[in-house]
Design a protein that fits this description.
Blueprint (H helix, E strand, L loop, with lengths): L17 E14 L4 E2 L3 E2 L3 E19 L7 E6 L2 E2 L4 H11 L9 E9 L10 H19 L5 H15 L11 E4 L13 E3 L12 E5 L10 H6 L7 H21 L2 H20 L10 H17 L4 E4 L5 E5 L4 H12 L8 E5 L5 E2 L1
Parallel strand pairs: 5-7
Antiparallel strand pairs: 1-4, 1-14, 2-3, 4-7, 4-8, 5-6, 8-9, 10-12, 10-13, 11-12
Helix pairs in contact: 2-3, 5-6
The structure holds (3R)-3-hydroxy-3-methyl-5-(phosphonooxy)pentanoic acid.
The site of (3R)-3-hydroxy-3-methyl-5-(phosphonooxy)pentanoic acid has 14 residues, from loops.
Length: 359
């Protein structure tokens, strides 16, 4: 599929009003997307686990637009009107209008809520933008019932990418690739696809416990961070490394080699933060407790031989990743040892999930 294939040729039906609800999960990257070109094209391919419990539910209700503004919408978070979210949605609508020519025809009431607390340091942009894109695709389907499920999902991912890059990996599950990679058939810079190769049962129901080290707003937005990869002295080596790590993961997913898996994901997390620390201007998003947790995880792994590993997002929180069959011991360790490094001892238990659902 190319960009122009997502422009609908004709809309068969017309509707006056309607309401559509989707619940869409967050995702956690194993190989990180950091650095982008124009139009939200990633500088390197990435792969993620779709999550299960951390999700956003969004309902859009539409009626004919009688306002004299081109885009007419209201947005509510947990029932409270959020005018401060409007500029982001307006920018998103401008970017996707070409692909959804009905956008100006309707007034949209957008009601959204997250399963995770707003101030948890967990970014809601992936689950939020994917849920909104799916709702908009439901409008397109109402107008054009002939579209296939495959097109629906691919275009939802394509639109979500234009809202927030990593959101394109939140439509389906359980392992999603975004960005063209020479060995991954069908991979594209335009949308996420399901990982097409064999995955060992060691990865079934893989756990992700998110340790909330810092619940504050991000000090540096990911947009600023991505842009700092332009002219970054190590950018090209980093992009090459991401391609190589994707390559290595193909055989690791097949063999179920968890020690090799942990090496890749931890290296990816630390490289992401190393890119931030070596950009100009430089910045540090990890907190002292992030490092405490990492050291505790390393000590526990050495002592027990259990397959506990971590990854990081663009923030201080730590995602602890481990196989289901070791979950009892590792959950106890998290409760007894790691929870003390979290704000108010707060952590969220999650696992690999299978994608968004229409409600
Ligand atoms: O989707 P964005 O623009 O918020 O960027 C996300 C970047 C990381 O979360 C750090 C990595 C990733 O691949 O999700």
């Amino acid at each position: 599929m190319k960009e122009n294939d997502f422009i609908p040729k004709a809309l068969d039906n017309s509707i006056e009003k309607g309401s559509f609800t989707w619940s869409s999960p967050s995702n956690i990257a194993l190989v990180k997307y950091w650095g982008k070109k124009e139009n939200q094209i990633p500088a390197n391919p990435s792969i993620s686990f779709t999550l299960d419990a951390c999700k956003t539910t969004t309902t859009i209700s539409l009626s004919k637009n009688i306002a004299d503004t081109p885009f007419s919408f209201d947005i509510f978070l947990d029932g409270v009107q959020k005018d401060d979210f409007k500029p982001k949605i307006e920018t998103f609508f401008k970017r996707i209008e070409r692909y959804l020519p009905f956008l100006k025809t309707y007034h949209f009431s957008i009601e959204t809520s997250n399963t995770f607390p707003h101030s948890s340091g967990i970014a809601s942009s992936a689950s939020g933008m994917s849920a909104l894109s799916l709702c908009l695709m439901s409008v397109e389907k109402a107008l054009n019932p002939g579209i296939t499920d495959a097109y629906f999902n691919q275009k939802a991912s394509f639109l979500a990418r234009l809202g927030s890059g990593s959101a394109c990996r939140s439509i389906e599950g359980d392992l999603i690739v975004w960005g063209a990679h020479k060995k991954i058939t069908g991979s594209s810079d335009l949308f996420g696809i399901k990982y097409p190769f064999e995955v060992h049962s060691n990865f079934s129901n893989y756990r992700d416990t998110i340790l909330l080290v810092d619940k504050g707003e991000k000090q540096v937005s990911s947009t600023v961070g991505h842009n700092l990869m332009h002219g970054h002295p190590f950018a090209q080596q980093r992009f090459n490394q991401a391609h190589d790590n994707m390559d290595d993961l193909i055989s690791i997913f097949k063999s179920g080699d968890l020690n090799a898996f942990i090496k890749i994901i931890e290296s990816e997390a630390l490289t992401l933060h190393a890119m931030m620390m070596s950009s100009m201007p430089y910045f540090i998003l990890m907190k002292p407790n992030t490092l405490q947790i990492i050291n505790e995880i390393w000590n526990f792994r050495t002592e027990t031989g259990l397959h506990i590993g971590f990854t990081l997002d663009a923030g201080a929180n730590v995602h602890v990743l481990y196989p289901e069959y070791e979950a009892d011991q590792i959950d106890t360790f998290i409760k007894e040892k790691l929870a003390q490094y979290c704000q108010n001892n707060h952590f969220i238990t999650d696992k690999i999930g299978f994608g968004a659902k229409a409600l």
